[in-house]
Please model this.
Amino acid sequence: MSPADLIAIYFYFFAALAILGALGVVVLRNIFHSVLSMIVCLFAVAGFFVLLNAEFLAAVQVIIYVGAIMVLIIFAILLSTRIMRRDIVQTNAYVLPGIIVSLAFLVTTFFVIISTRFVEDYHVPFYPAWLAEASEKLDNTMIVGWSLMATYSLPFEIASILLLMALIGGVVLAHRKEDD
Amino acid sequence: MGLSELAFNFLTTVWGRLQILWSEPARQLTHWGWEHQAYYLLFPEISLLVGVAVILLVDVFLGRKAFNIIIWIAIVALFSNFLMTLHLMYMTSRFFSYGLGLWWGQLETIDPYALFFKQLMDWGDILLLLVLFRYPLIKRFRSEFIILILSATIAFDLMVGSSDLLAIYVMTEFGSIMLYLLAAFHKDKLKSLEGGLKYFITGAASSAAMLFGISYIYGIVGSTNIYEIKIRMMSIYPDHPLVLFAMVLIIVGVGYKIGVAPFHLWAPDAYEGAPTPATAFISVFPKMAGFAVLMRIYLVAFAPVAQVWLPLFVIMAILTMFVGNIMALTQTSFKRLMAYSGIAQMGYVLIGVICAGLAGPNEAATSNGFWAAMYYLLIYMFMNLGAFIIGMMNEVSGGSDHLDTFNGFHQRSPFLSFFMTICLLALTGIPPTAGFIAKFVIFVSAVDYITRYPAMFLLVLMAIINTVIAVYYYVGIIKRIYLLKPLRTELARPFTPIFFQRVAVLVPALASLVLGIFYIDAPMNYVKGAWFMTYYTTIA
Model:
């Protein structure tokens, strides 16, 4: 097998895994099983990142999404026992319009993508000067760190402000004391 | 060499350096590595952030007694934000003349266009905060309410200056999350939670669509920078389905934020459930910031392929005006009515954007349509905010936001009734008010293109029909105020707003009246001074 075949096998394996995982989230009737299925989906996405040479993103995906966020969701389900043991209905009155809209979106996306020759039509590599310079000396992870802390420090700071404000908002929405 | 000669040489050297600095500051400051200390340019946002931090501390140490102090701190922060934007505007016009360029990895730009919107938002915020000095309907978490409003203003400030699709996405999300929290602020009321949840879920879906579209744009042109995309779009075959698809997805995201049909469905519920100051905030600020972003994306980045998105915008404008106006006819809640009226108003602004798009990629930012759209947003902020502030007063004195509480409002407060009439006439577009001038410049800019593009005739016709439809429900409120009897006798009891609330009513109402009669040119020149948004330079 040539490397291209191996890459194709790798890609289709993780693609199937991601799609099956995502389907499981919306189809399974026990919410705990849905969460487990979502872990599979997010893990498969980490596989894509490895394929795209973004090993740092893959690690972050596993640590943060598969590790932290899913554990948080599992705890949330654990603590609300009302929904844990019960089978829930995953469909409602809008299942048919939902299917139609999703299928329309899928078909549109599919035809748009297969009618595009990305490499021949649009392959315009674009690297900012600092990135071209940095990629000669540093590896991926170091460049990510460098750009987060130097070039793109503004959105980094803004994200931290966003977290602070979301914390305050969460307190407002979840606070229960009545004497205030 | 004597001491005096040495001192003289020293002073002349310093003076010479100062003169060089004064005359060629851009080169000098760049030479001194000024660009690495570019946080100077963030002072407007930093002043707001300092205000938020001080409010948090004051809230901890002084407790709920200090609410008036907290409002004053917020007003001071907003005013220093305003002074800093004025200073940056002076810098851009005096030294740089084309804006201060792109900063922080070319994610943000400081140009008169962004500063124009930042200043508008300061004025609107200050007016809104003045009302809160006595607003009994928000009892708990009042200081958190102000913190959320200030941080949403930070987000919108950064959003209007974004020159990169990813920065636009991050700032839009920041602002939107603050808005979801504001919409669900009355957490004890089911309607508020429902509105907030609807706003959140549809907002998350539309943001995902926008991000999907951005990823396609990156796949097409290999860059997310607005000005870089413009250059690369010039060489791209525009009829390709992928370009259209990506643009539609980005319209979903941005159109949702500005509440144009068919992405308007969250608006009535979110407006009705939210506390009325939050509704006033949601009805003005995200729309202004959203339009700033929309115009920057579509009139700069996608201007070379305008023929792809213009038909979409025409359909959206017609749909928006009709949906907003027709749905508003049957509403019985003031906030729901203003939600649909706000949707309809955005349709007129879209006409201005369409005209600017027709002008071509290089003339868009100096076209009449562009100015008309910005002028309309300026006037819209004043007249809508004025109507909402008086609506708040009515809710405080009348008990609910049902339109019936407006019956005989002039017996309760002749002062508020008079200015409510002015604001509503301005929203309708009746001649002595600025609302008329705003609609007029929109129509004039569209009429310019009728000979070349017959579809524009249809658009203008639809807009005029909609203006007539809108008269029914706006004047309906005026009829309730002056002609109908109050429902209950206690609704006729006189109500006197406090001094700051009267200021908050007077300023927007008089602005929408006086700007239409005496100072038609002044806001237009202000808008024209803020035209520049096509500056591009590489800071390498």
In short: Residues 38-529 of chain B form one domain.
